[in-house]
Structure formats: C-alpha cells, structure tokens
Amino acid sequence: MENVLRPLIVLGGSVLLTVAIGWATDRLLRKADESNSESPLWELLRRGRIPYQLVLCAALLRGSYDQAKLLEAHRAGLGQTLTLVLIGSAAWLAIRIAAAVVETSYSRYARAHRDAARVRRVRTQVELIMRVVSAIVIVVAIASMLLTFPAMRAAGASLLASAGILGIVAGVAAQSTLSNMFAGLQIAFGDMVRIGDTVVVDGEWGTVEEITLTFLTVRTWDERRITMPVSYFTSKPFENWSRGTPQMTGIVFWHLDHSAPVEAMREKLRDILRACPAWDGRAYNLVVTDTTANTMEVRALVTAKDADDIWTVRVAVREQMITWLSAEHPYALPRVNTSEAVLPPYRIPSPDSSSLRKAYEFPRTGHG
Questions:
Q1: For residue 281, with 0-12 CB atoms within 10 Å meaning exposed, 13-18 middle and 19 or more buried, which class applies?
Q2: In Å, what is the CA distance from 309 to each residue of 120, 198, 256, 277, 303?
Q3: Model-level pTM greater than 0.85?
Q4: Helix 116-147 crosses helix 75-112 at what angle (to 10 degrees)?
Q5: Which of 35, 134, 272, 291 is deepest in the core (most CB within 10 A)?
Q6: DSSP sequence for 308-346
Q7: Secondary structure class of 34 (helix, strand, coil)
Q8: How far apart are CA 55 and CA 204, in angstroms?
C-alpha cells in the first residue's frame, strides 16, 4: 500500500502545490495591474505564468522524486529529463521577464516623448537588444543542458583546448552572418534606419516593418514584403524619407499645350490645396519647367507633414487639376496640330534647261 500511496502523495502534492502557487501569484499580479493600470508590467508578467508553473512543477518533482521511489529502474533517465525541463522552462521564464521589463521601459519612454523619430529609434534599439538577450539566454540554456550529461563534462577540457581553432574556423565559415550581425548593431545604435521609417530601396517605396540582427523587412505600399540583409543598408545608398524631420515636398508634373492658362492654374492649385486636409500649409508653387515642339512641362511643388500625406496631396492635385482643365480649359490639354500640307512655290525652269527641252520634245515614230 505504501508503494502506491507514496508516489501519489509526492506527484499529486507537487502538482497541487504548483497550481496553488501559480493561482496565488496570478491573483497578486492581477491586483497589481488593476491598481496600477498605467504600467503594462504586471499584465506582461502574467503572460509568463505557463513557464513559471513549469519551473515550479519541475523543481518540486526534481526535489521530491527520490522520495517517490517510482520507476527506480529508470531513475537516472527520469531525473535527467526533469533537469532538462527545469533548465528549459527557467530560460523561457527569463526571456518572458526580460521582455516584460524592456516593453514596460519602452512604453514609459514613448509616453514621455512626443518626437516620433526618437520613439522609432528607441523601438529599434529595444527590439534588437531583446533579440540579443534572448539569443544569450538560449545559448546559456543549451550549454547548461549539455553539461548535465557526464560525457559532455568529460569532453569539456578538450573543447576548451580547441576553442581557438574552432573560433577561427567558425569565424571564416560564418563571415557573412557575423557581418550582418555587426551591421544590425550598427543600424540599431547608429540611427541609420528605424522601425516605421519610410524608405526607398532598389526603386521600391515602403515602410520598415522589422529589423533583426541579420535581416530587415520592408513593407511596400501594395503590402508586399521585401526582406534584405542588414549589411545592405551599411554598404549601399538608400533613401530614408523619415530621416530628420518627417516633413516632405512633393512634385506633380503635367504636359500641356502651349496655350494652357498658367496663371489660372496657380490660382486653382491654391484652391485645391486649401481644400485638401493633407496639405500642411507650408508652401506651394507652380512654374513652367520645360517646353517641347508640341507641349510644355508644368511643375507644381506641394508640401506635407510626412510621406503618407505627401502622397495624398500629390494624387489629389494631379486628379483635380486635370479634371478642371478638361472642363474649363480643354484647349490646354496636349493635342496634335494637323492641317493641309502647303506645297513649295512653283518655279518656272529657264529656256536652256534640260527639263524644258524634255518637256517640249515629241516622241518620234516610224512614219515621220
């Protein structure tokens, strides 16, 4: 009877104690979140309740497994398994706690600062720092798991002895990966490009959606994703429309007939911009920039507070101006001038010219 009750008491007690402690901790975190709703820390910590309960359960089972005397023939294997679960769940819990602390710090910074560019820069740095911390925790956890095996501990001395050679080989083999990692850190702390920036890369216009230690994702205007190595942004030129102030100046071109009313177009441009909410009111202009044999090029300059609004202003100005010209000044639209061809003036040949002689020659026949 003791052989049956002992394992049930040990296993059941460990599970019940884990559930009770987990429930009590969750209640405390919930009350802390309700009393301090401005900080997301407590809500983020609640997301780590699963790894927290795994740590508790694994630790309790690992400590009380010897008293359970269950499956003693597989005692070493079960103990090793519980140790691995304990290490893995502890690493998982550490990543969740670090993520909660980092996210809370970023939220406080974002609320305290109104500068969108600085907030995006801190967001980029926070993302990369969190990835570095996660990678370090995972590497340490895997190394700790391997060291729990006696064979790996015995091979530790030889591994340390050959660490220099392995480091050189790994550095040569992973040269591209290492360059991307250093480029990612350079982007994060060099403020070259940030999450949320509007960029033009290889002729593609989009917004930076994700930055990791090795690659960067740009979401284009048509919702495609372009994934590029971060080393591209440290070795090749690209356009960053969000660098510095987000204010932008846009250009709209029309190719019109030479008779187009330029002064009336300036007044119409002013009326269009005043009715456009995306125009920031800083400046506007309309001039003739070029002419050809059939048309002239008219350019309008408009301003907006950011890249999204400048696109809205440009398309509104282009569409409404063409509509107005078609309705009020249709002659201003490009056209091809056609008319009857004018022949060159007729010239009378001189009397001694060969053409005149040929004109008055009669064909000779056999009858004379």
A1: exposed
A2: 19, 12, 26, 9, 9
A3: no
A4: 170
A5: 272
A6: HHHHHHHHHHHHHHHHHHHHH-GGGS------PPPPPPP
A7: helix
A8: 48
